[in-house]
Amino acid sequence: MRIKRVALASEPIILIALLAIVVGASFYTMVQSTSANVKSLYVLTLVETGSNYYGPGVPPQPRYFVLGPDGLASSADIRLPAHRLIELIIISYDQGNTTPFEAKYANVSGTVGGVVTLINGTSASGLVMAASSEIPAKWERNVTGVPVGWVDHTFTITQKGGYINIPVVAGFTEIAYLYLNQTGNFAWGCMCPCGYPAMTTPGWMMGTITVY
Fold it and tell me: For this UniProt entry, which segments traverse the membrane (predicted)?
């Protein structure tokens, strides 16, 4: 009878131990899954500013920078992974607008869902979505394009058989998701006549995307 009592007394301990193992395994799986999801998303943040010193006798020029762990870096050669979801964030500190070379560059192209998330700017930095705007007033919305007159710059990647295009509104923050399924070197640039020599200088308003 003593043996049976010992067995019965030990059962709660065994159950608690088993429960701890199951909970621990579940937590480990959850953490690993979360880590994998975080690793699967590649984030590229670009900062566009409008009044950068280029050189003697040259008026202020617009420029794209890559925001990295050590601050702003050159956008001359941007390295991005292939076959991986990329979150592209573009933060504009520019003002005004420049009509794109072609009206099609006011439309979003090549992103997931064909949209970009447009986050409202402030009156200090340019346009504000108002009730009378062509795009309904809202602090944040997904759009497939913007009015041509609102385009200040674009971030356009030329690929084989197509292109990725994001119209940039001055003073706004924009977020897009995309995949790059072709490896190699591709040109990126702004499809607006926004300034020379910035338009033809790598790391200013044009450069290379290296997909690895």
Answer: 12-31
